[in-house]
């Protein structure tokens, strides 16, 4: 019985020694690095990182970089690095950004802001580098549209290429508009500046008036960048848009006038046809009335209201009237009836 207990005790001791050996081989190199660099990460901290699902190599490397760069270890602690790692952040990118900001003497970036920028999905290291070294954005930036086209008040088109120099505004990087907004605003400002010019010659003579007009509008407000300068890289004269628009307007006016004239002609033709119909109607009434005359004469004679001599006298008057009408029209006359 005593031998069995001794064997079990020896087994536990061997297991303990084996675990200690594994921990030593796993964490001793990291602990030595931390100790030599003055990072202040103990062996039990490293073991705790394993249980918290944190990669110790990342935390040790980030802490050593921060200590060696002289960053404030009261703010950049091991716990804060672990918390940022567990939140899904890029610890090494944040530390590199903090080191770059410290060397460049950028006081706008602190550890809290750097971690917030990283967790927001922005590249905090690239933001710091852009803040130190401004970058140039071509406007327009797309290959589909090569130039920005504006029209001066005299109708001449100008084709402009611009380059915008920007640097990152770290305080507005979270929630601020991106490069696309800067490009859109600058393009709008350039076109507006060209449109406000009296002639295209004024713009060609002083291209910097475009840059000044655009910069005065504060286009970088509520964006993640600060516009340093706007430079006109190229400016060319395009088409005479004003003349083309006037020609198109004249053509449209001509078509409208033709349509109105055609409408008036149709109304005149309709009125003429209506008058012709009225004339035919009147003639029909006259013919109908003339057809009633013999009947009336016969009825008058039968009623002894009209004598034979009166009838012949009436025929003579009618013949004389027809003769006079024929003479007036230049037609050959027929002999008078008696």
Describe the structure in brief.
By secondary structure, the protein is an alpha+beta fold. It is 63% helix and 11% strand. It has helices at 2-37, 43-51, 56-68, 78-86, 91-103, 111-119, 124-132, 179-196, 200-205, 208-215, 241-302, 308-329, and strands at 135-139, 148-151, 156-168, 225-240.
General description of the model:
This protein is of the alpha+beta class. 63% of the residues lie in helices and 11% in strands. The protein folds into 2 domains: 2-132, no CATH class; 135-244, Tetrahydropterin Synthase, Chain A (2-Layer Sandwich), CATH 3.30.479.30. Helix 1 runs parallel beside helix 3 (56-68) and helix 5 (91-103) runs parallel beside helix 7. It starts with a helix and ends in a 9-residue tail after the last helix.
Keywords summarizing the entry:
338 residues; alpha+beta; Tetrahydropterin Synthase, Chain A; 2 domains; 4 strands; 63% helix
Q: In terms of topology, how is this protein built?
A:
Blueprint: H1 2-37, H2 43-51, H3 56-68, H4 78-86, H5 91-103, H6 111-119, H7 124-132, E1 135-139, E2 148-151, E3 156-168, H8 179-196, H9 200-205, H10 208-215, E4 225-240, H11 241-302, H12 308-329
Antiparallel strand pairs: 1-3, 2-3, 3-4
Helix pairs in contact: 1-3, 3-4, 3-5, 5-6, 5-7, 8-10
Low-pLDDT ranges: none
Order of helices and strands: HHHHHHHEEEHHHEHH
Shape: elongated
N→C terminal distance: 179 Å
Helix content: 55-70%
* Whole-number count of domains: 2
The helix tally amounts to 12
- How would you classify the helix and strand content by structural class? alpha+beta
Portion in beta strands? 5-15%
Largest sheet: 4 strands, antiparallel
């Amino acid at each position: 019985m005593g031998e069995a207990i001794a064997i079990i005790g020896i087994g536990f001791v061997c297991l303990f020694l084996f675990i200690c050996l594994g921990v030593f081989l796993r964490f001793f190199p990291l602990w030595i690095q931390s100790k030599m660099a003055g990072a202040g990460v103990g062996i039990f901290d490293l073991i705790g990182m394993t249980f918290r699902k944190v990669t110790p190599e990342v935390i040790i490397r980030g802490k050593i970089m921060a200590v060696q760069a002289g960053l404030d270890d009261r703010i950049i602690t091991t716990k804060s690095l672990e918390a940022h790692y567990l939140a899904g952040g890029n610890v090494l990118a944040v530390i590199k950004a903090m080191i770059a900001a410290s060397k460049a003497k950028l006081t706008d970036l602190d550890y809290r802001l750097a971690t917030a920028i990283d967790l927001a999905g922005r590249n905090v290291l690239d933001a710091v580098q852009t803040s130190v070294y401004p970058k140039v954005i071509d406007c327009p930036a797309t290959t589909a549209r090569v130039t920005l086209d504006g029209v001066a008040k005299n109708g001449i088109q100008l084709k402009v290429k611009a380059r915008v120099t920007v640097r990152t505004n770290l305080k507005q990087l979270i929630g601020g508009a991106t490069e696309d907004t800067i490009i859109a605003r600058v393009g709008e400002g350039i076109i507006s500046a060209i449109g406000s010019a009296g002639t295209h010659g004024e713009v060609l003579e002083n291209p910097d008036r475009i840059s000044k007009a655009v910069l005065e509008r504060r286009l970088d407000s509520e964006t993640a960048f600060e516009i340093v300068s706007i430079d006109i890289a190229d400016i060319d004269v395009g088409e005479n848009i004003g003349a083309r628009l006037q020609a198109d307007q004249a053509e449209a006016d001509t078509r409208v006038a033709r349509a109105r004239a055609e409408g008036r002609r149709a109304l005149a033709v309709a009125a003429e046809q209506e008058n012709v119909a009225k004339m035919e109607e009147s003639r029909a009434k006259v013919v109908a009335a003339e057809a009633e005359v013999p009947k009336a004469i016969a009825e008058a004679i039968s009623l002894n209201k009209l004598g034979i001599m009166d009838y012949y006298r009436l025929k003579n008057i009618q013949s004389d009237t027809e003769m006079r009408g024929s003479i007036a029209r230049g037609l050959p006359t027929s002999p008078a009836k008696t």
